[in-house]
């Protein structure tokens, strides 16, 4: 039982840290956000709401400059002021910004916030176990190796979530009659919009997949859906 105590404490610590982070994020968003009001985006979000059998989808503007979209742990969807300004300048089209909203809706619908809480707590416990075991075999370096392995795991899980949210968004945009062209075109220009920052880590350590791979995954989905429709039409004729 005593051997399990550090693992149990690590789980509790991870859960407490995640809860605190979610609380702090919610307070920040409450203080610096207002509901997004735009006639064109309003039409597109209403199309998505109808596709989801919802009365409406509320989207908020988070008053920060970086270009980003986010889904809060409480399920609210946010677009940053920086992103919205690019839309107002004409650098981002309405269907492209709608694809960001659809992507964040995917994170909410697929329960990624809840999954991240579980993953974070589990990874924290696994880090303690690995650091303890490796520390006995490789003194001093054990903790460093354990942290590196957990970083690899965390990045991989984050990339999985992004692919899933992309797939959800593609399906929702298609069902809503908006289509995926805006989703693909935004991904292609996102790096330039965000300042074209150079990669600071190898692909396997990145929290988001390569842009080309995300676009390829959406195209693969479209091809699969197209083939399924053709097969359905041939069976019905």
TrEMBL record:
<keyword id="KW-0479">Metal-binding</keyword>
<dbReference type="GO" id="GO:0016020">
    <property type="term" value="C:membrane"/>
</dbReference>
<comment type="similarity">
    <text>Belongs to the peptidase M48 family.</text>
</comment>
<dbReference type="GO" id="GO:0046872">
    <property type="term" value="F:metal ion binding"/>
</dbReference>
<dbReference type="InterPro" id="IPR001915">
    <property type="entry name" value="Peptidase_M48"/>
</dbReference>
<keyword id="KW-0378">Hydrolase</keyword>
<dbReference type="GO" id="GO:0051603">
    <property type="term" value="P:proteolysis involved in protein catabolic process"/>
</dbReference>
<dbReference type="Pfam" id="PF01435">
    <property type="entry name" value="Peptidase_M48"/>
</dbReference>
<keyword id="KW-0482">Metalloprotease</keyword>
<feature type="domain" description="Peptidase M48">
    <location>
        <begin position="46"/>
        <end position="221"/>
    </location>
</feature>
<dbReference type="InterPro" id="IPR051156">
    <property type="entry name" value="Mito/Outer_Membr_Metalloprot"/>
</dbReference>
<dbReference type="GO" id="GO:0004222">
    <property type="term" value="F:metalloendopeptidase activity"/>
</dbReference>
<protein>
    <submittedName>
        <fullName>M48 family metallopeptidase</fullName>
    </submittedName>
</protein>
<keyword id="KW-0862">Zinc</keyword>
<keyword id="KW-0645">Protease</keyword>
């Amino acid at each position: 039982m005593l051997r399990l105590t550090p693992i149990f404490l690590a789980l509790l610590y991870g859960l407490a840290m995640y809860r605190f982070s979610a609380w702090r994020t919610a307070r920040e968003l409450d203080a610096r956000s207002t509901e997004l009001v735009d006639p064109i985006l309003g039409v597109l979000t209403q199309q998505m709401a109808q596709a989801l059998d919802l009365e409406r989808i509320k989207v908020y503007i988070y008053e920060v400059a970086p270009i980003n979209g986010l889904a809060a742990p409480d399920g609210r969807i946010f677009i940053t002021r920086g992103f919205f300004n690019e839309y107002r300048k004409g650098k981002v089209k309405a269907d492209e910004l709608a694809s960001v909203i659809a992507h964040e809706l995917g994170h909410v619908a697929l329960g990624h916030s809840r999954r991240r809480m579980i993953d974070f707590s589990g990874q924290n416990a696994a880090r303690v176990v690995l650091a303890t075991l490796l520390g006995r075999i490789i003194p001093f370096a054990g903790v460093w190796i354990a942290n590196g392995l957990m970083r690899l795991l965390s990045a991989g899980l984050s990339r999985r979530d992004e692919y899933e949210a992309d797939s959800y968004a593609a399906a929702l945009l298609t069902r809503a009659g908006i289509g995926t062209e805006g989703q693909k075109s935004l991904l292609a220009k996102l790096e330039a919009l965000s300042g074209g920052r150079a990669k600071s880590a190898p692909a396997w350590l990145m929290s988001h997949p390569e842009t080309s791979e995300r676009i390829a995954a959406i195209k693969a989905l479209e091809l699969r859906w197209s083939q399924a429709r053709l097969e359905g039409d041939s069976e019905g004729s």
